[in-house]
Design brief:
Blueprint: E1 2-8, H1 15-22, E2 28-33, H2 40-47, E3 52-55, H3 63-74, E4 80-83, E5 88-92, E6 104-107, E7 109-112, H4 116-119, E8 135-137, H5 143-148, E9 152-155, E10 175-179, H6 187-195, H7 202-206, H8 217-227, E11 232-233, H9 235-246
Parallel strand pairs: 1-2, 1-4, 2-3, 7-10
Antiparallel strand pairs: 5-10, 6-9, 7-8, 8-11
Helix pairs in contact: 1-2
């Protein structure tokens, strides 16, 4: 049994890409609704009608409370499980899970950021997003690339997460996560990034948890222009892991 868990808040733009990708990989999904006011719930019911939608017990995006809620949900789930954001797309050798001598697989992330050339291309719903947006930063190229989006945990054990559910190292070369937090960098992604800060409680702000979400459009554009200068073509890496996932 393989289960994906995800919390969402007004994610109707990326949800179709994310659901259509992960429903081919996981046996089941649990979607935690943070009081969405758009069509997110409708989209989930249309694409993955057998998956479970839970209304969150939390009022805000509190880093600690988000993680504790996910831990409690995972206690009810047998087998392999992972919690991903809507911007995170997992690829890998899932057949390995039947034989691997590990209870926890820490998976590195590619940060997807397109160049100006790729930014001008349209995005089509009928094609996987990793076949359309293929520029970014590889965690294999440098420690700084890895640390910009640290590892996620695919596991079958009981887990107490560090704040944010990220890990400082990885232990596999057979899985990869593509993080589309900056790609496609259009009005929809900018809107998504700006909406989150309205739900971050004062405790998190005081402790500098999730402060990357406290921003404005000018700062986002400035950050994008800075980071895009270091992007490289990741198509070969993406195709390798895509084939490992679906063509094996």
């Amino acid at each position: 049994m393989k289960t994906v868990i995800c919390h969402f808040y007004n994610e109707e733009y990326l949800l179709p890409f994310w659901l259509n990708h992960h429903k081919k990989i996981f046996d089941y999904g649990v979607m935690i609704n943070y009081n969405s006011t758009d069509n997110s719930v409708k989209i989930i019911n249309e694409i993955c009608p057998e998956w479970k939608i839970i209304n969150t017990r939390n009022e805000f995006f509190s880093a600690l409370e988000i993680d504790r809620e996910i831990e409690d949900i995972e206690l009810t789930i047998d087998g392999w499980k992972i919690c991903l954001n809507i911007t995170e797309f997992i690829l890998g050798d899932f057949a390995e899970l039947d034989t691997i001598n590990l209870d926890s697989i820490l998976i590195p992330c590619c940060v997807m950021i397109e160049s100006d050339t790729e930014k001008l291309l349209p995005v089509y719903l009928d094609l996987p997003i990793m076949k359309q947006r293929r520029q970014g930063l590889s965690p294999y190229d440098s420690e700084s690339n890895f640390k910009w989006r640290r590892a996620r945990n695919l596991h079958k054990n009981t887990t107490t997460y560090p704040i944010g559910r990220h890990y400082e190292s990885y232990n596999t070369n057979n899985f990869l996560i593509l993080w589309y937090g900056w790609s496609p960098f259009n009005d929809e992604i900018i809107k998504r990034k700006l909406q989150i800060q309205n739900k971050i409680p004062q405790l998190d702000r005081t402790n500098s948890w999730g402060i990357q979400h406290i921003t404005d459009e000018i700062s986002l554009i400035s950050d994008y222009n800075k980071f895009k200068e270091n992007t490289t073509y990741l198509g070969d890496i993406i195709d390798k892991f895509y084939n490992l996932t679906f063509n094996k």
